[in-house]
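Re: nicotinamide-adenine-dinucleotide structure - here you go.
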Amino acid sequence: MNKKISFSILGLGRVIEKRVFKMFKNEIKNGYVKTIFDIDKKKNKKYEKLFKCKAEETLEKFLNIKSDFIYIATESGNHFNHILKCFKYNRNVIVEKPPVLKVKELIFLNKIAKKKRLKFYTVFQNRMNKSVQYVKRIIKNEKIIFVDLSLIWSRPQEYYKDWHGKWKLDGGVLAQQGIHYVDLLIFLLGEPNKCISSIVNRVNKLQAEDTHSSLIIFKKNNLSCTVNMSTAFRPKDFEASINIYCKKKIVSLGGLCCNKVSINELHQNKNNFIKLKKFSEEVPSGYGISHRRVFQKIIDYELKKKNLPLNAYDSLSTIKLINMMYKSFEKKKWILFKEKNLISKLGK
Ligand SMILES: NC(=O)c1ccc[n+]([C@@H]2O[C@H](COP(=O)([O-])OP(=O)(O)OC[C@H]3O[C@@H](n4cnc5c(N)ncnc54)[C@H](O)[C@@H]3O)[C@@H](O)[C@H]2O)c1
């Protein structure tokens, strides 16, 4: 019989309901859910039936059931403690984005994972969008003049009534929604050098921000990127876009979650606008469709030693930049990537 990779799921909230359940049910090959646990008993009951597996009664019992991976989808600010617990039980971990909120937490957890030889992966699924993979290939040889990132999304006030928007557990539009696209900037452009940021609440009331603006300068060629992100738009998510302005063309990632790509070639007379259908995909929501690719890559690596999945530690620059952007607002000055103590209000 073919080996299948088993998963335990910790936390059965929105991301499971809106994306991960469907992925396990219909999309991935050679992987299945062995056990689940949420502190909310109703959710345990609901997903026991849906996943056709047993929900454990306590976290300790859950951690004692052996499976190939524990997938953590609890509140962002609780990831650190939950990962640490999993590591104590010598369990491999896949954690939803952001793996942790504080830079030193990621460094600490990575050391433990290495020492114990445990796998420690994270989910930044948009890196695996066809459009993003294509843009990464084609911008290598371009002379880039500048870049801009816009997130035009919508969250109603009631979204902020639980842990969302709180500094200790989440942060604002940058750390919850925008982080995907800041991660793409790093994936496409490399490490930043410095940033300066401003935050405000335009429409929603929350501890952190519903609207974030930054200027980021990257190490390579001192490239500048302007960033504007907000959840204050209505009535629904409109777009997440990254425009890369090159000397002779504009390369644009767009759609709800950078799932589409187009190129505008600049000419003396008539510009040539090309929609790249082959590398653009329709998505039902801002979650996109690439969770499947993240999980399938992990399964294929386990079974066939195919391409390495994204190690959580590979997102260190993203976690650093998020904290730099918040720290810049707090200190009202430019923050450098090389600073030793990249601590902001974000996290516990
Ligand atoms: N990759 C993506 O596109 C994406 C999208 C949405 C959310 N996320 C991430 O997923 C995580 C969860 O987000 P969500 O929107 O599903 O949140 P949610 O609040 O809907 O769900 C969190 C769940 O964790 C449970 N939980 C909390 N503490 C627990 C514990 N000690 N033991 C067991 N269960 C516990 C809660 O009861 C809740 O059901 C966040 O880190 C978020 O950033 C990722």
